[in-house]
Amino acid sequence: MAMNSGGRCVQADIAAGITPAAALFHSLSDETRLRIVARLARGEARVVDLTAELGLAQSTVSKHLACLRDCGLVDYRAEGRQSFYTLTRPELMDMLAATEALLAATGHAVALCPVSGPAVPATEPPVIA
């Protein structure tokens, strides 16, 4: 089952009334999953390839691949004892390209949206007004 950032299953979010579109965007709201998607856009990869290239733990990569598989965005083919992961939907790359164009057009203003708050680097404490 795909897990959201709160540890709940994305399918449970949909069952609770969240629209499928919101669930899709929620599944892509994690930076690690976006990095995995970007890497898989260049071609198939094994978990060991992703851990080496992205500098992530094997358990982290596996967890996020499971989420992306449950969402139908990634699949794998087995070859011997290895699994090669690929993107299943080319439309995903079109959507991400459109997202980049939107961010460029808005000057990345969405990152500073007052609803979600400004992006604060993890090394700085948040400013409390």
From TrEMBL:
Keywords: DNA-binding, Transcription, Transcription regulation. It comes from the Bacteria. The keyword Transcription applies. Gene3D superfamilies: Winged helix-like DNA-binding domain superfamily/Winged helix DNA-binding domain. Residues 14-107 form the HTH arsR-type domain. GO terms for molecular function: DNA binding; DNA-binding transcription factor activity. InterPro entries: ArsR-like_HTH, HTH_ArsR_DNA-bd_dom, HTH_MetalResp_TranReg, WH-like_DNA-bd_sf, WH_DNA-bd_sf. The keyword DNA-binding applies. It holds the Pfam family HTH_5. CDD domains: HTH_ARSR. This is ArsR family transcriptional regulator. It comes from Streptosporangium becharense.
